[in-house]
Amino acid sequence: MDLTLTDEHEAIRALAADFTDRELIPNAAAWDRAEAVDRGIVKRLGDLGFLGMTIPEEYGGSAGDHLAYCLVMEELGRGDTAVRGIVSVSLGLVTKPLLAYGTEEQKRHWIPKLTAGDALGCFGLTEPGNGSDAGHLKTKAVKDGDGWRITGSKIFITNGTWADVALVFARTGNKDGQPDDGPRGITAFLVPTDTPGFQAREIKGKLGLRGQATAELVLEDVRVPDQARLGEIGQGFKIAMSTLDKGRMSVAAGCVGLMQACLNASVDYATQRDQFGKSIAHYQLVQEMLADISVDLDAGRLLVWRVADLIERGQPYATAASTAKLFCSEAAVRAANNAIQVFGGYGYIDEYPVGKYLRDARVLTLYEGTSQIQKLLLGRALTGVSAF
Ligand code: FAD
């Protein structure tokens, strides 16, 4: 594997780094306190092409390969995990499955708006009663003439109150028209959020990602035409899982950015803070914490770039994506914890950014499959035995 970045990669990284330094880092703490990022950020992300990474230009995308996408996610993650998540979800969990499974009409209708930042998407899989066990979700879609009526609820949906379109997974029965309570009975639908019966209620008081609009979705008899169906009847769970495989790479790339932010802040602080007559950077136990963050960062970045490389070469990547997501999310929590320790008491107050890094990092071990679920996926890949 050649780890040299091309000129194009360097250019997109520089563009994202500049955006992060100018627009995210100066505002991240205020957005966190206000529990809302500036909504105008979505359009600016679209204008820079970040909501269209890897999407062909004919649909308004900015093309680029998966490594370029990861570099952008790293940089956004260095600035504000809440903003990185807005992109990861709208682009990674809505636009990308639309491109992979959508009809030409669906693609032409939604993708240019999503990549431009004129519309935002959310991904509605998790339900109050079914998180890790999404294959047994309960939201129902029943046939109604030439369309469907969807009823149910979703929880913890990123971008939920801001989204213009929700990718909703609902139980329809399987492709043979038979009732099916398992994964084969699930179908995906693109639901415009202004459809009568669709409600999004914001969830306040999150530990981290406080700037991000996380919502409960309530669907009461939401009628959509059959043209809103994404993919085949009964194919929804497969669409959700393949979408999350790539999504995990994006989460892991964001973790790398967060670890980079932890390292930058910790090195700066350690070289400036004096104790016992010299900077704390002189003490071996402090250097150990910096070295630990640095090793986690390097290892994580290599795991993420490997996933991007596998995707580009058309190789299987799901196991590598789980590995990267598991390692990077746990490592991001360790890195943020180490950063707080380097800062001492100052790390515990929100005048400094490291407390937010820990709060934001914590959710990365939970969403898009908890750490336990990643281990079960890896265990199944290793043994051929499903321990779910
Ligand atoms: P549960 O599944 O109830 O798990 C509870 C605990 O049990 C965990 O430790 C889990 O690892 C463990 N566990 C469960 N099953 C097993 C098992 N078989 N073996 C071992 N341990 C097990 N979802 C979306 O669909 N779209 C989104 O945009 C989205 N965004 C999110 C944003 C935030 C801020 C948060 C907090 C969550 C978001 N989620 C989203 C939901 C997230 O993916 C789920 O919270 C996650 O999948 C876990 O589900 P759960 O919360 O129901 O926990």
UniProtKB/TrEMBL annotation:
InterPro entries: Acyl-CoA_DH_CS (IPR006089), Acyl-CoA_Oxase/DH_mid-dom (IPR006091), Acyl-CoA_Oxase/DH_mid-dom_sf (IPR046373), AcylCo_DH-like_C (IPR036250), AcylCo_DH/oxidase_C (IPR009075), AcylCoA_DH/ox_N (IPR013786), AcylCoA_DH/ox_N_sf (IPR037069), AcylCoA_DH/oxidase_NM_dom_sf (IPR009100). Residues 6-118 form the Acyl-CoA dehydrogenase/oxidase N-terminal domain. Residues 234-382 form the Acyl-CoA dehydrogenase/oxidase C-terminal domain. The keyword Flavoprotein applies. Residues 122-222 form the Acyl-CoA oxidase/dehydrogenase middle domain. It comes from the Bacteria. Keywords: FAD, Flavoprotein, Oxidoreductase. Its cofactor is FAD. Belongs to the acyl-CoA dehydrogenase family. This is Acyl-CoA dehydrogenase family protein. It comes from Catenulispora pinistramenti.
